[in-house]
Amino acid sequence: MGEHPTTAELERLLHGGLDRDEMRAVVRHLLTGCPACRAALAAYAHLLFPRRPLDVPTAQPDRERGAPWNGAASHTPALASRTISSSSLTAASQIPHAGVPAAAPEAALETSETPATGETPYTPETPEVDAAYERAIDRALASVVRYGTEATRESKRVKQVLAVLERKGVAGFCEMPAHLRGLAGYEALLERSWSLRFDDPRQMVQLCELASVVAAGLSTSRYGGERVRDFQCRAAIELANAYRVIGRPAEAQAALNEALEFFRMGTQDRLMAARLFVIQAQVSGDRRNFETALAAFDSAIKVYRDHGEPYQVGDTLIKKGMYCGYACRLEEALELLTEGLALIDPATHPELALLAVHNLANILVDSARYREARTLLWRNLPLYRRYGGRVLLLRLRLLEGRIHAGIDEPARAERDFEEARRGFAELGQPYMATLVLLDLAALHIRQGRDENARREALEAADIFLGLNIGREAAVAMMLLKSTVKFRLATTAVLLEEMAEFMRAAEHDPQLSFHNYFS
After folding, report:
1. Given a cut of 90, is residue 73 above it in pLDDT?
2. Rounded-to-integer distance, Cα 295 and Cα 331, Å
3. Are 303 and 274 in contact (CB under 8 A)?
């Protein structure tokens, strides 16, 4: 071994492929506290290094504890496409963003100048101390060899369970033998649930609920009480996310509260805490508590940066940028999305890259930067076509309509709006279909087609008032209806502002109509 073990040596260590002298040299090096090598072994660090207690206040995770088990990052999809041009984004980062402490959980995880495990590097001073380190190394070696063998076996079992879940779903899982319904079943349930988040959110919830049941039944004598609590915490976090995806925010928050209790009883892994922060941020944002959401994102970003996780930093910056956009903080959203996109590899994470591109384009259009938005979209059309799905492709068409209207190409804009409106209606999304109708009304009044515009504006107001929209949005639509009905000053500016407000109200039903335009 050189100054540091190679990646191959670390992999052979974990799977029992080193001879005893090589293993002893690698583990002795790890015990010196080398941060780079510890980071490479983060997923197995709970077996290699002792942990110090983590101070957790009554309501939230707070301080750092040992090297993490990186379970929360295991769901990341690996796909292939690279179409994003960084040059198209250079104008998008201008205004610095402000960080605030997390509110739910309320305190950010603190940093420390000491190594992540809080241990003193290996410096034996006496034969007795050296012998103690040798015994610790022997115990660590035995654990690594044992876990490497077990990990290989569990990996094969996870693949077996996944194959059954893909064919038969929950019913197939319940028919499997007991040895496949333990840890392997738990991992397979969470992995399968994540893969269904876009295609079948309801089954995603079912699988997460079942994973929570399986986690509760795992043996504490085999895995240890703290690790079982970790498994339960992770299942509760993913269940909260599943509830959030299908629009059940109260149940999502209840699952997060439960996850926090399991977190306090487990190993208090910092990366798991970061995942908890991210889902808490999204749940808070979906409930329109944007300050709490952005603060929780900040806490997660801090942890991921401390642990050298650039992809996770990028992912979280993109999510935070989206919620800044929902909160109408457009310049900050633009900066965050651009920064996050620079930290991810679109070839490895194309779906996340597409999410960032789409939100960037939306903000550029909202800021009347139409040609920049069009360039960004054109350069990433292959990404949309391969990974977009029907809904995102319709939202792309709506964006293109707004761009064509903004650069004075009305015929193309009308074609885009009509296509988007029909598509949203077919998918049973009346809010989006009606929003497009307002865009059409604004386009037509700019063309001098006043009667068409008034008819479309009245129709849109009536449809919106029949939907479950917020009080402020209802006030806006009643005002629009009265203005058009009594032939008051119905102008393109009025219709465009109404469409703009209803677009913002889609994400924030409590948004004040008066404050929005003041």
Report:
1. no
2. 17
3. yes
